[in-house]
Amino acid sequence: MSLSSLQRRIRTALGSHRKPAQAISAVLRRWPDTLAGRTLTLLIGMTLVMLVGSALLLHDERRDRFEERNLFYLLDQVTTLVLLLNDADRAGRDGIIASFARLGDTISLTDRPAVGGSRPWRYGLEHMIQHKLRAALGIENREFVRVALELDARKKVAPIPPDLAEADAKRLHQDIRTADVTGIAVSARLRDGGWVNIRTARLEEPPPWAGKTLQLLAMLLAVVIAAGLLLTRRMARPMARLADASNRLGLGQAQAQLAEEGPREIRQTIHAFNRMQERLERHIRDRSYMLAAVSHDLRTPITTLRLRAEYIDDVEMRDKTLATLAEMEAVLSAALSFARDEAADERSRPTDLGALVQSLVDDHADLGGAVSYEGPHRSIFHCRPIALKRALNNLIDNALKYANTAGVQLLEERGSRTILIEDDGPGIPEADLERVFEPFFRLETSRSSETGGTGLGLSVARTIVHAHGGTLLLANMPSGGLRAVVRLPE
Hints:
Main location: membrane
Structural class: alpha+beta
Strand order of the largest sheet: 6-8-9-11-10
Keywords: ATP-binding, Cell inner membrane, Cell membrane, Kinase, Membrane, Nucleotide-binding, Phosphoprotein, Transferase, Transmembrane, Transmembrane helix, Two-component regulatory system
CATH class of the largest domain: Alpha Beta
Helix content: 40-55%
EC number: 2.7.13.3
Number of domains: 3
Order of helices and strands: HHHHEHEHEEHHHEHEEHEEHEE
Enzyme class: transferase
Pfam families: HAMP (PF00672), HATPase_c (PF02518), HisKA (PF00512)
């Protein structure tokens, strides 16, 4: 086989399975997304399969019972009638036949059988009825008991070919049941040589379904659904609380230890989460203590050096030394502030975000900055206001430092808030839009001739925004200038 023909066969096989795969994918897309929903769907689906299977088995069982009852009535009627007629004289036989005749039955006494003789084949149901009648009447000769079925034309039972062997005919129509029959004719020979011919059409069919059974199954399904709802909600509630606690932990919100409840796997997960939360809080607390000590230890020698620099006689050298020490102190303060992340100790609370942004804009305007605000005057939002104010202040400072004007816009969206800070400056090269968030990275010549800053303002701003679960992105505007986009989720 050539490689090209093999490839064609593979493509053909894959194409033939494409539609089933698409159907499976469509079903999976409709699969519930929650643990409770999937568990409940699986429980209801398995229960429905069990109930449908049980209903089908029950229906078959009821049909078999009705079939047995039909045959019992027929055999009992024919056997009793033949035995009574054998013992009665001709005058009494008419009364016996009259007492046995019912609506749908035909009984007659003749010298010849109404049912034909031997055939090369018989239905399995005919053979069974004949065998049971001969055994009940004590008749050994097969020709003295004859049975013929009248089949329902609507059932579309195919006739057996005349030349078909009897064994093959029995196998072909072994599934013939009384439900497929409209009438049964029996001819039995009496002791005096006469024949009694009986035809009955009183064959009862089982009802399609039992009403009480369906009601019971429906009640059972309702109980399963109700129990499944309670079970899945109880099982999924600890996981929902764990997800909410994880989200609050990521946002720095205060929270107590979670109750360890639910299945064993969920209890183990909650226990691990509680231990992790304890370790994180201890780590942050220890780091804050260590950084406070480092800050104190470094600020003391810098202050000592500044005092000693005051005694330098050379004015130019003294000024340069003091400037260097001031720069060292500024870098130290910025680095410690960035590493300490003061926002971590602040707890979230409902805050008027509109008033917060407006106050920042007004403060910069009072200092001579050309900055404007656009947005709602009141917008309640759950956040850490001091930390968020610091991040937005860094962004507005950055915009006014490298541009003439800046505009701040607050947008209220469903489930989030978006703050846009736009300026008319030279922007940032596309390759550096992400690098400017790196600590101590500065664009000294691309946006201003003055270096200024320590290169930590944007890093601190993004750290605070990320601590709120939000995002901070920078983008150059087509008309010129830089746009900072802060998105904060609820």
